[in-house]
Amino acid sequence: MAINIILLGPPGAGKGTQARRLEEGRGLVQLSTGDMLRAARSSGTEMGKRVAEVMDKGQLVTDEIVIGLIREKLEGGDAAGFIFDGFPRTLPQADALGKLMEGMGRKIDAVIEMRVDDEALVARITGRYTCGNCGEVYHDDTKPTKVAGVCDVCGSTDLRRRADDNEESLKTRLLEYYKKTSPLIGYYYALHMLSTVDGLAEMDEVSAAITAVLDKRASNS
Ligand code: ADP
Ligand code: ZN
Questions:
Q1: How many helices (H) and strands (E) would you count in the chain?
Q2: Ion ligand 2 neighbours, Cβ < 5 Å
Q3: 130 in helix, strand or coil?
Q4: DSSP for 33-52?
Q5: Which of 9, 41, 54, 109 is the most buried (most CB within 10 A)?
Q6: Are 108 and 5 in contact (CB under 8 A)?
Q7: Beta partners for residue 142, in sequence order
Q8: Strand 5-8 to strand 110-115: parallel, antiparallel, or no bridges (unpaired)?
Q9: pTM of the shown model
């Protein structure tokens, strides 16, 4: 079934983890602007150099750049459906996405807000690392790799910590979220597109809550 979903929530809410599960379970394609921007910076292009500094400080990259990245992916791909992870993050981005989707004869079926409190986020983010090969997400305390330094899923030893996963950048990321991204909650609520799940629940419970939202939306449409 074709379905397009936005995952909304502060840094560390678990958007990436849930997006990966939805990808596997439903054959959807995850579009993470954070991942696209990290790919751009490591490719060493002029744009990559410009965004690296902004990202490391925890600030938002310009709307123009991220909208451009999303447009490229949407026009290039022919997926059953998309999971937008970390996009849109501002009202202009939300508008642009609406227009892009409309132009393709698609619509956003659900916006899922993953709600968490700030204390939990600091602990989650400062212990976080991921596999550079397959993208699996780990945590020092709650989900370490079974063998130290080796990815459980693919066996890669390329485990990475993000440059912006420190307390200083996180402070800025949270402020940016409340100032620029959280207004989207009201915006999508008014459009009857918003559903909220408890992002502090166990990973499986969060997945189940998201599945329930999507099933309900599907049966209503
Ligand atoms: P998180 O949700 O944990 O903050 P992301 O990987 O989604 O992680 O984003 C990392 C950084 O990339 C952000 O702090 C920001 O600098 C930049 N970024 C990602 N998506 C966007 C976006 N839609 N608009 C502006 N900047 C973005
Ligand atoms: Zn891996």
A1: 9, 8
A2: 131, 133-134, 136, 151, 153-154, 156
A3: strand
A4: HHHHHHHHHHTT-HHHHHHH
A5: 9
A6: yes
A7: none
A8: parallel
A9: 0.90
Among residues 50, 162, 180, 217, the one annotated as catalytic is: 162
Measured in angstroms, how far is the CA atom of residue 144 from the centroid of ligand 2? 13
> How far out from the chain centre does Cα 128 lie?
15
What's the pLDDT tens digit per position in 2-57? Answer: 789 999 999 989 998 899 899 888 888 999 999 999 999 988 888 899 999 999 99
The position carrying tokens 């207004």 is 183
Rg (CA), the chain: 17
Yes or no: say if 128 and 12 are a contact pair by the CB < 8 Å rule. yes
In DSSP terms, 115 is beta-bridged to 198
Smallest CA-to-CA distance from 20 within 11, 10, 28, 8 is with 28
Residue carrying structure tokens 């074709």 = 2
d(CA 124, CA 157): 22
144 upstream amide cis, omega within 30 of 0: no
**CA angle (134 as vertex; 161, 195 as ends), nearest 5:** 85
